[in-house]
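We were asked to recover a plausible sequence for a given structure. The inputs and outputs are reproduced exactly as logged, with field labels preserved.

PROBLEM: sequence recovery
POSITIONS: 330
GIVEN STRUCTURE:
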């Protein structure tokens, strides 16, 4: 039986690096102390776009270009392009189609955009892998995750304004008769906070009907305890590992959502994974949402934490909320 293996991964982030001091001063001027929030989330620096030429699509193209150059592949070698973003630069045409044009993709290539919010790239990887297992004519897929949240964050909202970083990740997966690769996945959905993060706040229809002010297009966020997903995520991961007869000690890297270092530690402890296995890059990159588990994977590979054949566990959570976990053999 063929497997869907990771060929390689690369990332892109802007050069402009911003520390916590900028955001602390910003909110101090508004009479809001965010020091405790930044400490709880584990933030130190993040990379931020500081020009008018970059956006989620341009970052996605840079990550994809870096990856193609690194692997020696071209756009013509890609049978499927999947683009995951909750802040796509365009609604139509698909951003994956625009990437196809930028990398000179082949005529037969499938182009799809998807959105599962912060869980988007993990869900795209999982869905593409399953599609490839059922369709042998898809040999290689390029999966990209990219978010640029800053333009849509209210300057009065500490969570969205101070927490996020800008970055993209791109990964190529390949059907291989000799590989294990993607092993299994699990989803868990609870809609108890489905209305706490709305974007655009007034809905897309208002844009065409009446237009909206710039502020009305920001994310509408009602604060809640983000750790509410930890218990359900831990149970899902235990089920995932158990039904595949994988012990926690076999996991060599845990590439989790980088939303909160507290959640990473809590889930790791609940499932029996050590802090040295759970990769944390949120102190350097900030929260890059959809791409964050894959930037963690990139760090695990480039640091030498994992080698070919090692098992890697992914977990992330999307707004609303939805837990997505999967296990792959690198």
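RECOVERED SEQUENCE:
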């Amino acid at each position: 039986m063929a497997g869907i293996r990771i060929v390689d991964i690369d990332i892109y982030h802007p050069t402009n690096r911003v520390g916590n001091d900028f955001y602390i001063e910003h909110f101090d001027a508004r009479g809001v102390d965010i020091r405790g929030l930044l400490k709880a989330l584990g933030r130190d620096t993040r990379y931020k776009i500081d020009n008018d030429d970059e956006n989620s699509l341009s970052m996605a193209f840079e990550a994809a270009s870096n990856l193609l150059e690194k692997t020696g592949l071209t756009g013509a070698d890609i049978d499927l392009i999947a683009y995951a973003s909750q802040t796509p630069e365009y609604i139509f045409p698909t951003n994956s189609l625009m990437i196809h044009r930028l990398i000179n993709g082949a005529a037969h290539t499938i182009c799809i955009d998807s959105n599962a919010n912060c869980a988007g790239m993990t869900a795209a990887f999982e869905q593409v892998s399953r599609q490839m297992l059922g369709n042998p004519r898809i040999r290689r897929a390029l999966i990209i995750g990219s978010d640029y949240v800053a333009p849509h964050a209210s300057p009065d909202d500490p969570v969205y304004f101070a927490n996020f970083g800008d970055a993209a990740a791109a990964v190529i997966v390949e059907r291989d008769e000799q590989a294990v690769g993607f092993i299994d996945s699990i989803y868990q959905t609870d809609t108890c906070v489905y209305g706490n993060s709305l974007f655009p706040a007034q809905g897309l229809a208002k844009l065409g009907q009446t237009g909206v002010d710039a502020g009305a297009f920001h994310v509408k966020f009602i604060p809640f305890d983000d750790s509410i997903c930890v218990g359900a995520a831990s149970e899902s991961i235990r089920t995932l590992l158990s039904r595949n007869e994988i012990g926690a000690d076999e996991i060599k890297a845990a590439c989790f959502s980088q939303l909160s270092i507290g959640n990473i530690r809590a889930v790791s402890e609940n499932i029996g994974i050590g802090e040295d296995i759970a990769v944390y890059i949120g102190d350097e990159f900030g929260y890059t949402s959809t791409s964050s588990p894959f930037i963690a994977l990139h760090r695990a590979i480039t640091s030498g934490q994992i080698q070919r054949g090692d098992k890697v566990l992914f977990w992330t959570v999307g707004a609303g909320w939805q837990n997505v976990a999967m296990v792959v053999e690198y």
